[in-house]
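Extended Data, panel c. Modelled sequence:
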Amino acid sequence: MKIAEVETLLLSIPFTDGGKGEGLTPGTWNTLETVLVRVVTEDGIEGWGEAFGYFCGAAVKAMLDRSVVPLLIGCDFDDPAEFSEILQRRLALFGRYGITIFALSGVDLALWDIKARAEGVPLHRLIGPQRRAKVPAYASLVRYGDPQVAAGFTERAVREGYRHIKLHEITRPDIEACYAIRGDADMMVDVNCSWSAEEARDMAAWLAERDTLWLEEPTFPPEDMTPLAEVSRAGVALSGGENLCTSWQFRELIASGLVRYPQPSVTKVGGLSEMMKVLRMAEEAGLSVMPHSPYFGPGYFATLHVCATLPAPVLFEHLYVWPDAYLYADMPLPVDGKITVPDVSGLAPAPDAETIRRYRIA
């Protein structure tokens, strides 16, 4: 298949989450900044991908427009994974990780979308076998920084049928308030590298006593395995990997034996091609992948397809926010804590043109 046209789009969709939008990002986080990649073949097959864009969308789009798109027009591809490696080699001088790989992630997803559409099958059938028609999801709450507010949204998620809830709180009172009303729901805690090694050891022991399913990225930098060795002795399972790019960076994480749940992010790791390499490495090590997925575009669907093929106890991360609009007319959202896997050809239905028109900023 030959690539005839490539378009990049930057969208900003406001959302509400009941919090202040502070603590996790450089500024107030109240918009979903999404970089879309639209690729069309000479045969007229259209594919859509998503590159990570939160607070860096303009830079990712610029990388695509200036350095990636010129390499695509007129190129033939049959295997997205082979083509993605070619692109990585061509762009190695401009950084193996970060913005470059974010951009290539979007292209890779669009190519997989095209391949699945060309074969007339849902994406999960290309990477299968499909193990489930519905994927269990967990509510990934934002950081509220207020015990009453955090507990209120935890209680709401439980009422909505979620059996797994992830907090982003970093203080003991905020976490304890949520645990007090969780009922029989499993809890996870992601602190985004906020704790020192000593604090992480103490908190890990405290969380282990409360049957926490996992503790995510407790220390900085997330790729440093040294402090994790001591934290892991507390008895709570560790997770991490959302900030790693390509399967190369996951090799050390998986080989360390310290992280029970690797968490590749399909819009950051290098797309589906790199994610599948991580899945194979994790499987060989006897680990369960829990994909990172706070998205509502093609990255959401790609993660859903991946989860449909993974063995239990896979969980889909659903960002617990309410956007002003969804990119798809029939967005598959959790119902009683489960999401139905789409059965349409390709990665997802075509995005809604009116939503793109309304929220496009570049």
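Residues 73 and 136 are 39 Å apart (CA to CA). This feature is highlighted in the accompanying rendering.
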